[in-house]
Amino acid sequence: MRAPIVLPALFTILACARAVPAPGDATPPGGAAPGAANREGAAAVDRLAEAMRERIAREAPGEVAVALVDLETGRRIGIGDDVSMHAASTMKVPVLVELFRQAAEGRYSLDDSVVVRNEFTSIADGSRYSLSPEDDSETGLYGMIGSKTTVRELARRMIVRSSNLATNILIERVSAESVRRTMAKLGAEDMRVLRGVEDTPAFRRGMNNTTTAGAFARVLEAIARCETGVAAGTPAASLGLSRTQCRELSDILAGQEFTEMIPAGVPAGVRVANKTGWITGIQHDGAIIYPPGRAPYVLVVLTRGIEDRAAAAKVASNLSRMAWEALVGAPARVAGLPSTDELLDLHRRHRVGAITEREFTHETYWSTVGPVIDGASTLSREEVGRSVEGRPLYLVRYGTGPTRVLLWSQMHGDESTATMALADLFRFLAESPDHPLARRIAERLTVLFVPMLNPDGAERFQRRNAYGIDINRDARALVTPEARTLKAIRDRYHPEFGFNLHDQNVRTRVATSDRTAAIALLAPPFDEARSDNAVRTRAKQVAAVIRQAVEPLVAGHIAKYDDSFNPRAFGDLMQQWGTSTVLIESGGWKDDPEKQYLRAANFVAILTALDAIATGAYASADPSAYEGLPYNGRPVNDLLIRGATIALPGLAPYRADIAVDFAEPLERTGGRIVDVGDLAEAAARDTLDLTGLFLHPTGPADRLVGAPASFTIRRGADPASEEVGMIDAGIVRRRTAAAPDR
Fold it and tell me: Among 181, 268, 384, 702, which one has the highest count of C-beta atoms within 10 angstroms of its own C-beta?
């Protein structure tokens, strides 16, 4: 359980801000007065500290502590940075540091196998307790109880997904006492790690892990100094880690999936290595931020007594944005756009509640949305074509302005996120025609919507249409009636702007990171050379506007789609035909199997873009804000099974790795084998180490690749040997005994 924290009725704002000069700034060698640059640098830090303090007093309904360390100048800011708070999951960073330190000493290898178990000893009374997956932000590890995984994989889960189970396994390996000794060597003795997670008897006796913002910042500073090779003569040297080892440690932190606090305040694509922590009334984040072309800086924000997690995250992201702008420089932001918060509020009020799942039919959609459109004086729809199987294709029209904008969704029948967002947008335009945003769009734009261009694919929830053709690749041949309809609309209206609305593989990562690409943008090229002209430049500017709009929602999870020219694709040819076109791809988001969070992000993106076109604000956007996005990285497998020996009937047992992908990766159903063999370089969302155990297929064994990932896990090659557990279509269903401890 996550035990509640008793808080005082009145909140205290920690306003004792102080700016600490870099060593030597106050009196340089020889006693000379500091130079103008030093004086200006110190004054800038003072201004930032004061601005942060004012922001906290204005926005935070609770306690906020801040510590900032700039490795470029050595200057520091502390706002209540010596106030001790419950550490929550930030205590996992000291455990990670100690784990790497002991591995560097040769006590074990990070690649050693460890049995996953769920029984621990309370430090309070010696009683045994277990953790519950319902109270853990990472549940996949619970399906591996009794099997093995590596120390490295446990470390990754402990940080990236904040696994409590992984934490408790690792803290018993390194010992809390060793963690505290290392923290003391770093000058971070106020970051006190006493115990593992969910030790209720200890919690009741007040035996809790605690930290101050200043101590947490010193730990992160040690990692950053070690990684950048400037640890000599500093406490970071006591880590005993090489630059390569520190880089690996920070790479784990950089794979963090919880990015709504400090990372949300820095531009997408900037490397951020962070760790959050939250329990009732507590929400923290600490990060190393790596701006291009300068040394990194460390920022820690601790909050207590802010019951609304979203409010606490907003405080932290705003402080983070202030730090970035003061230390690195304010990005060129497009002025005059509606705020993301305002648009989220509009979405909450106009979300179509009848559509709550990704999979819905043409009839379901139009029986829900049709009456909204038909009953509005400002919206109209007409049938403009029919699908292969005869389902009507509708064009929805809004506004009478001179600039024409065309949006189409669900060319691929199983990519419905934007179609849901368009339903919400129709409701907003129908019910709030006098809203200033709706009026601007109606007066200055003629907006043309084609929701669900592939209704036959939607009926089956499949990518291709009833012909088996990918409609998005039919822009040149125009074989399908759906493609011909879209081309006819384009030729009829000659829109100046276009939006191609898709979903992408939820397994796709941002560049080489472990972060899911939640939103990918593309201003498609119009030729093989990827040339720029006025049409494509406008598309890049609109994409930059969209990035600015969704960054507060999916910071660190925005990528750029592959910009290779495809002469068959609608986006590329729309650009060639003179329509400034932006592709929006919705990927995946943690704990969002029906993509409702990304539905809201699409609403924000589309409405912001339409307003920016209506007002002309997009023209002030810097295309580099789009061009600087990292590309989509490789998609990873859903599951890797490592170390097992495969026992097929009639064949000699052999050792091989197995890669599994789910038919529905968001729901983790329908797991099938996609590869078998030496997969040492492969990556996956989850890894199952079955070293020393044998996999016996439960279905036909004439082939593995393409078959359901279903096995009985046994101690030996003999089908009658002891059963340890089962894997059913990629999901571990039950365990009866632990794997041998080898």
Answer: 268
Cβ–Cβ under 8 Å, residues 644 and 654? no
- Asked if 429 and 415 touch (Cβ cutoff 8 Å), the reply is no
Instruction: Give the DSSP H/E element, type plus range, for residue 599.
Output: helix 596-615
Angle at 591 between CA 729 and CA 409, to 5 degrees: 90
**Among 3.30.310, 3.30.1490, 3.90.1150, 3.40.630, what is the CATH number of 341-382+412-495+508-581+589-597?**
3.40.630
Task: Tell me the two tokens of residue 99.
Answer: 């784990």
pLDDT computed for residue 33 by the predictor: 42
Q: Please enumerate in sequence order all residues whose Cβ is within 8 A of that of 539, keeping only pairs 6 or more positions apart, or say none.
A: 497, 523, 524, 575, 580, 581, 582
Q: What angle do CA 477, 478, 483 make, to 5 degrees?
A: 140
* Rounded CA separation 247/103 (Å): 15
Tell me how far apart the alpha carbons of residues 597 and 283 are, in angstroms, rounded to a whole number: 21
At 607 the three-state DSSP class reads helix
Residues in the chain: 742
Portions of the chain given CATH number 3.40.710.10: 17-327
Where, residue-wise, is CATH 3.40.630 in the chain? 341-382+412-495+508-581+589-597
With tokens 């097929």, the residue in question is: 648
Residue pair 447/441 in contact by the 8 Å Cβ criterion: yes
Residues β-bridged to residue 403: 445
CB 426 within 8 A of CB 433: no
Question: Shortest CA distance to 581 belongs to which of 522, 634, 638, 527?
Answer: 522
Domain 17-327: assigned CATH number: 3.40.710.10
- Which residue bears the tokens 């924290």? 5
Q: What is the pTM of this model?
A: 0.73
Is residue 367 within 8 A of residue 449, CB to CB? The reply is no
Do 112 and 96 touch, CB atoms closer than 8 A?
Answer: no
Domain with CATH 2.30.40.10 in the chain: 636-735
Residues 6+ apart with CB under 8 A from 660: 637, 638, 639, 640, 641, 671, 672, 673, 674, 709, 730
Q: What is the model's pLDDT at position 138?
A: 86
With left for phi above 0 and alpha for psi between -120 and 50, is residue 346 left, alpha or beta?
A: alpha
Burial of residue 611 (number of CB atoms within 10 Å: 0-12, 13-18, 19+): buried
Helix (H, G, I), strand (E, B) or coil at 130: coil
Nearest to 626 by CA among 583, 572, 587, 574: 583
pLDDT at 680: 86
181-215 core/surface letters (b: 16 or more CB in 10 A; e: else) = ebbebbbbebbbbbbbbbbeebbeeeebbbbbbbb
Helices (H), 412-451: 417-431, 436-444
Helix and strand numbers, DSSP H then E, in the chain? 19, 32
Which DSSP symbol is given to 681? T
pLDDT score at 37: 54
Please give the class, per CATH, of domain 636-735. Answer: mainly beta
Q: Is 296 left (phi over 0), alpha (psi -120 to 50) or beta?
A: beta
Kindly list the averaged pLDDT for each block of 10 residues, start to end, along the chain of length 742: 30 41 36 52 86 92 96 94 96 97 95 94 94 87 88 95 96 96 95 94 93 97 87 71 93 92 87 94 96 94 93 93 88 85 96 97 98 97 98 98 98 98 98 97 98 98 97 98 98 98 94 87 96 97 96 89 97 98 95 94 98 97 91 91 93 95 90 94 86 91 90 95 92 53 27
